[in-house]
Specification:
By secondary structure, this protein is an alpha/beta fold. The protein is built from 11 helices and 11 strands. Helix content is 40%, strand content 18%.
């Protein structure tokens, strides 16, 4: 049985405390952030602290968050590997899927950061420029979770399926689309099941991102991809990516298609995952149910816990 590394999606307001601890205590982390600063022209302090980037152009803010969180995930991965904690399986949601591809050797770090920093994070006007947003749903299993994004709710799409929460009584969904449509859904849905996120103004992982998808297709055509050296599980569909072209296509599909923790976790389970470590501050702890034990490594103090979990679950670590 094997160890999996799981990388989460972009967090627009993640707390950087753990990353700052890693940065202060590890030269390899400092090297990674300095490399990313060199490749992007963004200073290290801004990359480290999400709150520093709170002013200015919204698209630029999102890009800074993307490359800052990617740098954090790559750095923590490196520390784990330095300590002999090496995954046999990797994968992630949204941004995390792209970082996992890099960790698996499918593209270089510089190419990954360049793609993230050039990525289209713009609001694309549709139908008279209706504002866009996202929403979180805790959908009771007493009904059909698909009701929340079905045909009767115009302007609402499924952006992410996170699977069941720990009690198993509801399914956690991320919806995206037009803000007025999401507000209408919230008002029609059972009370307290839908929360609209007003700090997200782009309908990520939906057909409204079609222009960005095509822009990404052109950008990835200019990048050298390779076949992954690790088992790389997708969250777009339950699939283990084995070729350079499959990874390249995942980068394109990731822009405008829903992500699914269910696909990712079940794919990892199929590949033999006995334990997964969530790398970086990217998934809320204890929010979701997984088909295997999960540990969270988002600060230095979590590493001894990860080592203990390896022994507790008898996980095999591949040779370097």
């Amino acid at each position: 049985m094997a160890l999996a590394f799981m990388f989460g999606s972009n967090q627009f307001n993640y707390q950087p405390d753990g990353i700052l601890e890693f940065y202060d205590g590890n030269s390899s982390v400092r090297d990674t952030f300095h490399d990313v600063a060199k490749w992007t022209g963004v200073d290290v302090e801004t990359l480290l602290r999400a709150d520093v980037a709170a002013e200015g152009d919204p698209e630029h803010q999102v890009r800074i968050n993307l490359v800052g969180l990617a740098a954090a995930q790559l750095s923590i991965h490196d520390i784990l590997v330095e300590k002999g904690i090496r995954p046999a399986i990797v994968g992630g949601l949204s941004l995390g899927g792209l970082v996992a591809s890099c960790v698996a050797g499918a593209l270089s770090r510089e190419d990954l950061i360049s793609l993230l920093f050039r990525s289209n994070q713009r609001f694309e006007p549709h139908q008279d420029g209706r504002p866009q947003a996202a929403a979180t749903v805790f959908a009771s299993l007493d009904g059909d979770p698909a009701w929340y994004y079905g045909d009767e709710h115009e302007g609402v799409w499924l952006g992410g399926d996170f699977g069941l929460e720990p009690t198993g009584r509801s399914r956690v969904l991320m919806l995206a689309g037009y803000r007025d449509a999401l507000e209408k859904l919230r008002d029609a849905a059972p009370e307290h099941t839908v929360t609209v996120s007003y700090d997200v103004d782009v309908a990520v992982h939906t057909p409204l991102r079609e222009a960005a998808r095509e822009e990404t297709r052109q950008q990835v055509s200019e990048v050298a991809f390779a076949a992954p050296r690790l088992k790389l599980c997708s969250s777009i569909q339950q699939q283990t990516l084995t070729t350079a072209e499959e990874v390249r296509e995942m980068f394109v599909r990731n822009v405008a298609e829903p992500m699914s923790m269910v696909h990712l976790a079940e794919g990892m389970k199929h590949e033999g995952a006995q334990l997964a470590l969530v790398v970086g501050p990217s998934l809320i702890k204890d929010l979701l149910r997984f088909p295997f034990p999960v540990g969270y490594v988002d600060r230095p103090g979590a590493i001894p816990e990860a080592v203990s979990a390896l022994f507790e679950h008898g996980v095999d670590i591949p040779d370097s």
